[in-house]
Amino acid sequence: MRLSRNVRKLMLFVHTAASVGWFGGAAVLLILLSGVVTGDLRPESAYPAAERVGAVLVVPLSLLSLGSGLCLAVGTHWGLFRHAWVAVKLVTTAAMATLVLLVLTPELRVAAEAGATLPVDEQGGLMIGPSVSCTLLLINVALSVYRPGRSRAARQAGKVRSRAALRPPA
């Protein structure tokens, strides 16, 4: 089933907004968590704030990004596995959303409950998830913009061949 033009544009807007919001939430987590590590922020206030950002912002936006991306892939000519870059985006987004739910959110909850008593060696580890999320989300943006896979010459050659195949035999 193909999405109508208006629905496709709406889904593209939702997908882009959710992904940008997810990136922003991950960046906020990095700021809060690095503030604790550097001593600029107090853990008893930064960790509960980080837990709320994770639960209220990052979790829903990660799921919305995944869901809207799936709708766009299935409902447009890009398809789920027709192009490698779409498949890579799907796999990385699904993996990140899963890790947000199963790893990051519980770790932030533990940190919020522990506050200043969280061991120092665990404080820096909390920044790994948001750092990886920011990096992979930027890679997904690059994949969307550059759409790697075929050269311009190969695309042009494919267009010429497909036009020739559509002509009736003489």
The first-level CATH class is given as Mainly Alpha
Spell out the helices and strands N to C.
HHHHHH
Largest sheet: none
Q: Let me know the number of strands.
A: 0
The total of helices stands at: 6
Transmembrane segments: 12-33, 53-74, 86-105, 125-146
Protein name: DUF2269 domain-containing protein
Keywords: Membrane, Transmembrane, Transmembrane helix
Overview of this protein structure:
- Keywords: Membrane, Transmembrane, Transmembrane helix.
- This is DUF2269 domain-containing protein.
- The chain is mainly α and 170 residues long.
- The protein is built from 6 helices and no strands.
- The chain is elongated, with a radius of gyration of 21 Å.
Question: What characteristics describe this protein?
Answer:
mainly alpha; membrane; Four Helix Bundle (Hemerythrin (Met), subunit A); 170 residues; elongated; single chain; transmembrane helix; 6 helices
Give the gist of this structure.
By secondary structure, the chain is mainly alpha-helical. The chain is 80% helix and 0% strand.
Helix-strand layout with pairing:
Elements: H1 5-38, H2 43-75, H3 84-114, H4 120-123, H5 128-146, H6 152-166
Helix pairs in contact: 1-2, 1-5, 2-3, 3-5
